[in-house]
Amino acid sequence: MKVALFVPCYVDQFYPNVAIATLELLEKFGCEVSYPKNQTCCGQPMSNSGFEHLTSGCNKNFVESFKGFDYIVAPSGSCVLHIKEHLHDEEHPSEAEKISKTIYELVSFLTDVLKVEHLEASFPHKVGMHQSCHGQRGLKLSQMTELNAPPFSKPQDLLNLVKDIEMIELDRKDECCGFGGTFCVAEEAVSAKMGVDRVNDHVRHHAEYITGIDMSCLMHLEGILRRQKSKTKIIHIAEILNGRKA
Amino acid sequence: MKTIDHAANSKVFNQDEDRVDWHDETLWFIRQKRDKASKQIPQWEALREAASQIKNHTLSNLHNYLEEFELNAKANGIQIHWAKDAQEHNEIVYDLLAKQGISKMVKSKSMLTEECHLNHYLEDRGIEVIDSDLGERIVQLAKEPPSHIVLPCIHKKKEEIGALFHEHLGTPEGNADPQVLTEAARQHLRDVFLTRRAALTGVNFAVAETGEIVVCTNEGNADLGVHLADIHIACMGIEKIIPKRGHLSVFLRLLARSATGQPVTTYSSHFAKPRKGKELHIVLVDNGRTKQLGRPDFRNSLKCIRCSACFNTCPVYRRSGGHSYHSVIAGPIGSILSPNLDMAKHADLPFASTLCGSCSNVCPVKIDIHEQLYKWRQVLVKEGYVDAKKALSMQLMAKTLASPTLYHLAGKAARTTLKYAPFIAQNRFNPWYHQREMPAVPKSSFGEWYQKNRTK
Amino acid sequence: MNSRACILNAVKENQPELLALPDITHLLEVENQDLVAEFTRVIEGIGAKVFQVNKYQEIIHHLKADFETEKVRVVSTLKEFDEIAKPFSGLDNHELADVELMILPTHFAVAENGASWVDDELFKERVLPFIPQHLVFIVEKEKIVPTMHHAYQLIGKKKYSYGTFIAGPSKTADIEQSLVLGAHGPRSLRVFLV
Lengths: 246, 456, 194
Ligand code: SF4
Fold this sequence. Notes:
The complex is a heterotrimer. Helices cover 46% and strands 12% of the residues of chain A. Chain A has 13 helices and eight strands. Chain A has a four-stranded parallel sheet, sandwiched between helices. Chain A is globular. By secondary structure, chain B is an alpha/beta fold. Chain B has three domains: 6-11 and 308-382, no CATH class; 41-156 and 197-290, Rossmann fold; 403-453, no CATH class. The radius of gyration of chain B is 25 Å and the shape is globular. In chain B, the strands form two sheets. In chain B, strands 1-10-7-4-2-3 form a six-stranded parallel sheet, sandwiched between helices. A four-stranded mixed sheet of chain B has the order 8-5-6-9. The N and C termini of chain B lie far apart (56 Å). In chain B, 51% of the residues lie in helices and 10% in strands. Chain C is an alpha/beta fold. Helices cover 22% and strands 22% of the residues of chain C. In chain C, strands 1-11-6-3-2 form a five-stranded parallel sheet, with helices on one face. A four-stranded mixed sheet of chain C has the order 7-4-5-8. The chains are: A alpha/beta, B alpha/beta, C alpha/beta. The site of iron/sulfur cluster has 15 residues of chain B, from α14. Chain B: Pfam families: Fer4_8, LUD_dom, LutB_C. Chain B: Residues 294-324 form the 4Fe-4S ferredoxin-type domain. Chain B: It comes from Pedobacter segetis.
């Protein structure tokens, strides 16, 4: 199975370990993983700011980089959702469409395609799960509290395979952290307050780590935790699943 | 270009963190009540789907339903008026009052009359309007606009209301007991109900098949006002129509549960004919609605039944307060309705969201609110309602991200300064840092690591 | 062009292609339940009191215990309550302002939300259930339906000039979400199931 690794720009630049963990995980499960080196970004920062019409160059580059693979996998729900919903390339419409259909966020790739049922990982810590909105409500990685529908959670299914991990309960299971792309600076006051409230929910319930599927949310929460000089840390789910020791 | 914006208003609101917490908790509590109520109804999601489809259908056949409604209402002795905008709506109401020499009117909750600024219009012409919904009366006394469509004074603490009532209604100084304050309002307004000859109400639903209108309240203020007056004026946007009486079941099951978690509002009153010897007038108002109907991406915002569930769930609304939206209807739905009326004035609102999507999933009529927020952003940028600096930096970013070479060059700089990291690209002063630390800078990017470790 | 034509034209021009109206009959399917118990649970949850009685005399007995029926004004449209109440025969409904207790019949009630339906077949003055300090509804046990869908089936195409669902006493939570019963309408609602 030929898998291309898509590493969102900020993960590439600031959180290389998350990308490495993703790569190693995929390799463990027998994927033949490539990292197309000309990849840049999904274009979401522009689109969410209202500049979707400027993304054609970015889209083209994306299609160019990721065509011809069985699957594309990224450790980010938000970027994947964006590609699924907005990628188009007038010159290569069928390739763009295929990419939209075969791009996966890491967790759902592990549960739905690789059908992972066993992991060599242990993480003896109290962990809080941050449900990133685009992963949860957009990609339906877990059930949202808004709906009257049966609960499920793909990230939790995987974390259940990790030894010694202790998940904590939150007061607000799936409230947005306030990152929101450019929102985090354009609406700095509300964004920061949302982040503080989210962090406090985890800290109040004695989380040693906050984990999640989207590094952007975690980067925002980390910024707040470190400003508060909190002992609570963030860790991307890929790193836990890949067996990182704290 | 922009005079006031949501971000600046929110910054002010957030200076008092205790108040933000209080506001957030109060509204979250209502969201939880809504969750509980909706989860007691096994058919909840089927109801939402039905409501959504009924509204979609109605909008696609609105022309016929409006005519059918008019025909049936008239046959029942109701007088129908049409207003293409706020001005005409206000004139119609004023003329109805002036003709009968009425100078005092009692009014129950109607967001439409807020939208038309009816109170000011009438007051300028010597007509006194008293809002009879308790929350509306409170903001009226405080000379403020409502901050929430269902809970108009949710931004006010009881001590503030106590002080207001002390000044205006003579309640004991320092008394902030909701029971006492409500009782004072009851006494004060009872007299108003008994002495007003004209009563104005909003409309929750208008049934084409029967020509009747339905008005929902908890306080009973709409009914008390109307049943004791000679003339009842009901004002409604043209989107309030539903095809059949039987459809009310779907909407009444959803409305109160979505709004406050109650199983139904205390009163759901159906007005099919005027009282004997009295008058019932209905004013059908466009005021931008047909324009919105003509925007395929945004037309289904007209499905809104004004339950306010999207307000209560919105993490931004809860932490910025209704007034930060500087528009009659705040919250997520306000942010997709207001730009239709005035893009320049409301260009900031579609950006006052993280696009988390909670709103669309509590909405009882399944409006794709967060997707419309995204689409409004595209429209506003194209129409030029965004500042030049931002546009420039976006062009720069587009160029960088389209070219792997430029991107890799920029990346190095970004890691040390964060300056060109896409999510904060347009900012020189980097508001990120105000309340957050930067990510620690790794020795190398993943790309560089990969080059070193994986390429043979 | 007048505004009416203006608006209707604009609507016609801007409305999308016709979309189908959904069938909602499936919503009538509900599990079997004890309707009296459900109605009681729900309406008590929203601030009303429920009493199951066999005879009207029992109701009078209850009301005499709770109100000074000799001293306060009690009005009813039901002759069964002649002992404690008078019918309203005035010309101007403002004369009802001092009614303490109002006893009214209802057409039917709804279990899922505690609402009772009344329309002007039962009484002409619309203000009757709104103006008293305290309200009493008489509901026939067999006339409790499960949901609002069943309610509107019962109402059907009936030609009333006014009708309303009433669920509980009048209330407000506008001040800091503190629930206060007795906003503008009745301060209490007693439902007698017969
Ligand atoms: S948009 Fe939906 S959730 Fe928001 S007020 Fe309207 S109906 Fe309610």
